[in-house]
Amino acid sequence: MKKSGLSITKQAIIGLSALAILLWVALFLPAWTLNYWQAWTYWLVFLVCVTAVSAYFLKKDLNLIASRLKVGAAEKENTQKITQAVISVFFILLVIVPSIDHHYKWSPVPYYMSLTGDVFVVLGLFMIFLVFKENSYTSVLVEVNEGQEVISSGPYGKVRHPMYSGALVMLLFTPLALGSFWGLLAFPPILAAIVVRIVGEEKFLIKNLEGYGKYCHDVRYRLIPFVW
To answer: Which residue in 20, 57, 83, 139 has its CB near the most CB atoms, within 10 A?
Structure first.
């Protein structure tokens, strides 16, 4: 277990380092300048939050970290493969388009809106943290693990897919945090892909996870309370 824990920790550190570098490149290379305070703020805010969450679960829940380290793993079902690809591509665009926008000054955003965007990015990441804390089986893939049970407490008592809710808050406000209105155009495809993913995921879970059908009946909303 000790060796496994050290291995997971090493993988997590390597993953965080790679994320920091890739995000930095995606933010500043298309902008072709380091004079981009919105990108510096977003980069720091995002990495501080993600590092803090990772450090917490490296100490509290190595199984969750191991599950989240399946980044790049392929889905088995074709529809989920497509949604996974769409989300990945448009997440990259969600960052790159604002960077290009900054270079050409297409749609400058008032500073207070960018700072508000950062606040909501933190809020979205905090929502994801609460989901991780409640559910150790949270995975990057649509799957059911041995011993997995239906979780209906915490954020799961409000909506059936609170991780996606938190992710969408973070993603929606990312372009504004980066000082771009044009970047918002990358958000609708992500939202559409997540909706399709949720529908397919629920069909899978109803079939393969005992008690999930009853949970869907008890918790009415999938993503946004009183909306859907």
So the answer is: 83
- The model carries a pTM of 0.90
Q: Are 194 and 168 in contact (CB under 8 A)?
A: yes
Nearest alpha carbon to residue 39 among 180, 146, 217: 180
Q: Answer whether 9's CB lies under 8 Å from 3's CB.
A: no
Residues 147-202 have pLDDT tens digits of 678 888 899 999 999 999 999 999 999 999 999 999 999 999 999 999 999 999 89
Tokens 């510096």 correspond to 40
One-character DSSP codes across 66-108: HHHTTTTPPPSSHHHHHHHHHHHHHHHHHHHHHHHHHHHTSS-
Q: Is residue 16 packed enough to be buried (19+ CB in 10 Å), middle (13-18) or exposed (0-12)?
A: middle
Tokens of 142: 């649509």
From CA 50, how far away is CA 68, in angstroms rounded?
Answer: 12
